[in-house]
Amino acid sequence: MNEKWIKKDLKSIIVKPNLIDYEQECKNFKWSNMENLFDGLPSGGLNIAHEAIDRHADGALANKTALLWLGKDGERKTYSFSQMKKESSKFANVLKTLGLSKGERIFTLSSRLPQLYISVIGILKNQNVLCPLFSQFGPEPILQRMQRGDAKVLLTTKKLYKKKIIPILDKLPELRFILLLDSDEDENQTVLSFSRLMAEASDSFEILSTDPEDMSILHFTSGTTGMPKGVVHVHKAVYTHYMSGKYVLDLHENDTYWCSADPGWVTGTSYGIITPWIHGVTNIVDEGEFDASRWYKTLQDEKVTVWYTAPTAIRRLMRIDSEPTKEYDLSSLRLIQSVGEPLNPEAVIWGEQKLKLPIHDNWWQTETGGIMISNLISQTIRPGSMGRPLPGIEAGIIHLNDDGTITEVTEPNKEGDLAIKIGFPSLFRAYLHAQEKYDKCFVGDWYISGDLAYKDEDGYFWFVGRADDIIKTSGHMVGPFEVESTLMEHPAVAEAGVIGKPDEMIGQLVKAFVSLKAGYEPSDELKSELIGFGRKKLGVAVAPKEIEFQENLPKTRSGKIMRRLLKAREMGLPEGDTSTLED
């Protein structure tokens, strides 16, 4: 057994029933066989909207609930697959009437309203490109993305239009129309009422022949430096959405599924819209923001069977002293998945203890378009690990050589760059208008993820950190995640962010920024206690030598702790792109 795993395991491994033969499934899997699972368009080709909605609406699932929307004030709406087909066809006709042609980009900036989800399908039907924006972005990050994405139409609300779009409107000369989702009347000739346009549109729409390689979605992602990058995905990515929905989320037609991710992010589109509908599953959308009692009540009242959430939400739930299974009936829930950043092992154990289910971590990126590595429901969970590659996915640990070549690491437990063999259908096709940056992501037939990891003797991958987060101290390579996970085992620690701080003697020393749970106060005594705790758990070479308490750690809006921002502030350096920083 891997020594590093023993450190992270806490108490036990968690075993799930072996529902599939993993090795045999990986051996037999072929992406080419996916073509037989989909109807394809009557007009020819492959279109995500047809496979997600129309084929169900034209078949046995026509009257089944596709979308169950829960308003923040208690309102409740349901849409069958048949209704979704008609409503999304109306919006496709709206775009066609407005003169939007194939490939032109439609941006969305909205809270989780039903009209947004209808619009997403309509955009794809008209062969336009969906460009999601997070509704809590300020004007500047919105402008950056709309300019780089060549925005032609924006869907938004009256409030967001007045607050965030009007201040930048003169800098978007190519923007033709703004459609207000919650307005009954047009503001002027270019700022139009969504409901008026929908009322005048036909609910019949024929999707034209769509090449599987046609652009479908443009997501924006921020690196440690530079402006946001437009990540191009194509309709063929639906193969990965289906496959990961089967093997990772274990979706069946009788499931009720809830993904808590916002539709402004890749998880909120890939797994909050496309994947459940590809599988003909009822998809819950909750307009409200995080609230523990509301979330538990939703799981109970809607009899959610599969729940996909984020480590940030799980940590918030962990901070509350409660016994959810005694206060709520969560007996329908059979699977919990987490994504967004590595899931600390104690969270896996907490799920088993408090929710009576372990929490399965998985790994993927905006660039991969879908889940690549996961603690599959059919496999033994190793708390703290990313899991094993999905069938059809070949992952490896490599070293980048000075001459531009790579060496694949075959020895277990040796750290290196996490890479994915190209050839899977959801791999991004470009960084829009940035070919050079795109080309740098590949060496030979490998996509280089920018994450550091290692693979144990049983093929489980373990996240170490981003390549630019790794701390070199006294000749040792220290991964921030391992230190953060250990600190979070201390009863006082709610969250931790770890960086390398330049030090003349040892290169870098390990510094931890810590936020405390309710009932604990910062003190020199607690600081010393945490340093001692870290040394005991990790050893002197790896443990943090400095601790700084912060009430709230800087995080992206999707919940990732921004280590680079902690480091920039510590060293007095420019903060770089902060457009994804949580308010």
Describe the 3D structure.
The protein is an alpha/beta fold and 583 residues long. Among the domains are: 45-61 and 71-235, ANL, N-terminal domain (Rossmann fold, 3-Layer(aba) Sandwich); 469-571, GMP Synthetase, Chain A, domain 3 (2-Layer Sandwich). It contains 18 helices and 28 strands. A 9-stranded mixed β-sheet has the order 2-1-11-10-12-13-14-15-16. Strands 17, 18, 19, 21, 22 and 23 form a 6-stranded antiparallel β-sheet that branches. Strand 13, helix 14 and strand 14 (359-363) form a beta-alpha-beta unit. Helix 3 packs across helix 4 (81-97) and helix 3 (48-57) packs parallel to helix 10. It is globular and about 70 Å long. The model is unreliable at 1-18 (pLDDT under 50).
Q: How would you summarize what this structure contains?
A:
By secondary structure, the protein is α/β, with parallel strands linked by helices.
Topology of helices and strands:
Layout: H1 3-9, H2 22-28, H3 48-57, E1 65-70, E2 76-80, H4 81-97, E3 105-109, H5 114-125, E4 129-133, H6 139-148, E5 151-156, H7 158-165, E6 177-180, E7 191-193, H8 194-200, E8 215-221, E9 229-234, H9 238-247, E10 256-259, H10 266-278, E11 282-286, H11 292-301, E12 306-309, H12 311-318, H13 324-327, E13 335-338, H14 345-355, E14 359-363, E15 373-374, E16 388-389, E17 395-400, E18 406-408, E19 416-421, E20 430-431, H15 435-439, E21 442-443, E22 446-455, E23 461-466, E24 471-473, E25 476-478, H16 480-487, E26 493-503, E27 507-516, H17 524-538, E28 546-549, H18 563-571
Parallel strand pairs: 1-11, 3-4, 3-5, 5-6, 6-7, 10-11, 10-12, 12-13, 13-14, 27-28
Antiparallel strand pairs: 1-2, 8-9, 9-20, 14-15, 15-16, 17-18, 17-19, 19-22, 21-22, 22-23, 24-25, 26-27
Helix pairs in contact: 3-4, 3-5, 3-10, 4-5, 4-8, 9-10
